[in-house]
Amino acid sequence: MAQYDRKRKIDSGIDNKELYNRFRIFYVLRLLWKWENHKVDELYEILKINRTLYGRILGLEKIDLKDRLEQLAQLTEIPAKYWDGYENISLRSWDSQEEDRAWKKLISSRKEHIGNQKTSEQIDIEGVINKKYRDALKESNLQYESEYFKRLVYFAKYKEKRPAKTAEELLLQVERDIQQVSRIAVESMLTTPDRLEGHLKIVVKYVERVRATLILQGWDR
To answer: Which sign, positive or negative, has the C-alpha torsion 24, 76, 162, 77?
Structure first.
């Protein structure tokens, strides 16, 4: 993976927008992680970011993460510029201006009440954000979200980076490819019966595996 270069000095270059973007990706990752009922300490261990540092990131401190960016990118398959706040992952299912206002409102509330109990305003805005993200996680909606958001969701669910293609995408590809094979294409293989026979064996083996999986899934029903 290519090394990410910020192009400007960390001490003078991080602005509020980038700190907000950092806050959002780290906040959302921990939120998704909790929703999967994973232990938060395990997240810190996998990311090699301790609880204190994670808290400082969510506290919008100007922390130099350059030594951790490539590691985060490799772990999640999400480019370093997102972890550094240079780019932001937004929900396609949420109006961008409305989403930005919600996040800024949450961040402002957290900064004003550091160390105190959550205010009713903070609870309300967290409720709005949570609902938007839970809706985005529904299978019928997730497919339309951005690739990097789906990678973040996958990492939070399985504790590893999303493969090049998911099982669902592979199945869809098989189905599409089969439907595109014409009768003429199959008949042309009759001139080479060994090739057609070999193809049939592969298809039959695949069908048997699918059928066996269905049988096992229904074992205890």
So the answer is: positive
SS3 101: helix
Higher pLDDT, 81 or 221: 81
What are the structure tokens assigned to 26, written together?
């780290």
pLDDT in tens, 116-147: 788 899 999 999 999 999 999 998 899 899 99
Determine what percent of the chain falls in helix, strand and coil, rounding each to the nearest 5: 70, 0, 30
**CB 148, CB 78: distance < 8 Å:** yes
pTM: 0.72
Q: Please report where in the chains the tokens 């980076």 appear, as a residue.
A: 161
Give the tokens for residue 92: 């396609």
| Cα angle, residue 206 at apex, residues 204 and 211 outer, rounded to 5° | 95
Cβ burial of 70 (10 Å; 0-12, 13-18, 19+) is middle
